[in-house]
Design goal:
single chain; alpha/beta; seven-stranded mixed sheet; 9 helices; 16 strands; globular
């Protein structure tokens, strides 16, 4: 069999196989791990994950990791608690097998929305998850579009929080013909910083929607701040869960005179009635990245489209392994 070649940032073939690196995949997103390995020009490393009859996770690492630079790809989706436990066991298994460094690649960070005490006796679960990952033996974290960037401070180890923004900008320019006549809209005040960054780079206007919640996942009222009359409105958020917010926001924007409404989110969780709401919504399309597997959702909802971010994660792994800076990826998509 011919030896696989890794690619440099410019897409040139690198004749030397990347030495001392192992990329393992958890059960949540093997397709993403396979794409990362293909980009790096290496084979996915062997690991067997299974469950005992009582529900306990069992992990068997199928090859030596002694002195190796290990990357474990596991996203926060499906059965989140099982996914988290599996990740912790895999990290610990590699660490006690004398791996030189263990990096957890977590495209969608679990429990990221529980990042502060917003009411009495509320837990800060994101901090607890950070402690568990650190104690299990992880030396480094690579993640994407954290719900709150301050979560990086919950860790005492290095965290690289990558951004989907460069890939989103590329998609907008390639797939929305009249993108210069668009308005970038945040569905809540918390996403204003994200929206203004995209609007500045596209040199277009932005707007935001102020919403009030009665309780989690239920929106009470919405007020549009900004002008979208006779423009294409592009809703931008970090995650789409039950999709109540984006579907209500789309109706509000069309009432305010928008020509079309697109929704672009980094993490497509799509729980509960999300798919039904998307199919019945006024949205042109819902664009999400593949930080979470989307094959089933795309079959059920034709409006859903995906942006492949495996090239960004692969380049982050390559740069980390070679001791290079990853800051280039904050504003550019690798070729």
């Amino acid at each position: 069999m011919p030896e696989k070649k890794s690619r440099t940032l410019t897409g040139e073939i690198n004749n030397d196989k990347m030495p001392n690196i192992k990329v393992f995949s958890g059960t949540t997103h093997p397709d993403l791990a396979a794409k990362i390995c293909e980009r790096l020009g290496i084979e996915p490393s062997k690991v067997v994950t299974k469950k005992f009859s009582n529900g306990e996770c069992c992990v068997e690492v199928g090859e030596s990791v002694r002195g190796e630079d290990v990357y474990i790809v596991q996203s926060g989706c499906h059965e989140v608690n099982d996914m988290l436990m599996e990740l912790l066991i895999m990290i610990n298994a590699c660490k006690i097998a004398s791996a030189c460094r263990v990096t957890a690649v977590i495209p969608c960070f679990p429990y990221a929305r529980q990042d502060k005490k917003d009411k009495s006796r509320a837990p800060i679960s994101a901090k607890l998850v950070a402690n568990m990952i650190t104690v299990s033996g992880a030396d480094h974290i690579i993640t994407m579009d954290l719900h709150a960037s301050q979560i990086q401070g919950f860790f005492d180890i290095p965290v690289d929080n990558l951004y989907a923004e460069p890939a989103v900008l590329k998609w907008i320019k390639e797939n929305i013909p009249d993108w210069r006549n668009c308005c970038i809209v945040s569905p809540d005040a918390g996403g204003a910083k994200r929206v203004t960054s995209i609007a500045d780079r596209l040199n277009v206007d932005f707007a935001l929607i102020h919403k009030e919640r009665k309780k989690a996942n239920e929106v009470a009222s919405m007020v549009l701040v900004g002008d979208v009359t006779n423009r294409i409105a592009i809703l931008v958020d970090d995650m789409a869960d039950t999709c109540g917010t984006v579907c209500h926001a789309a109706e509000k924007l069309l009432e305010a005179g928008a020509l079309k409404v697109y929704a672009i989110c980094t993490h497509g969780i799509f729980s509960g009635p999300a798919i039904t709401r998307i199919n019945n919504s006024m949205l042109e399309s819902v664009v999400i990245t593949n930080t979470i597997p989307q094959e089933e959702q795309m079959k059920r909802a034709p409006k859903i489209q995906t942006i492949d971010i495996s090239i960004i994660l692969a380049e982050a792994i390559r740069r980390t392994h070679n001791g290079e800076s990853v800051s280039y990826l904050f504003e550019n998509v690798p070729l």
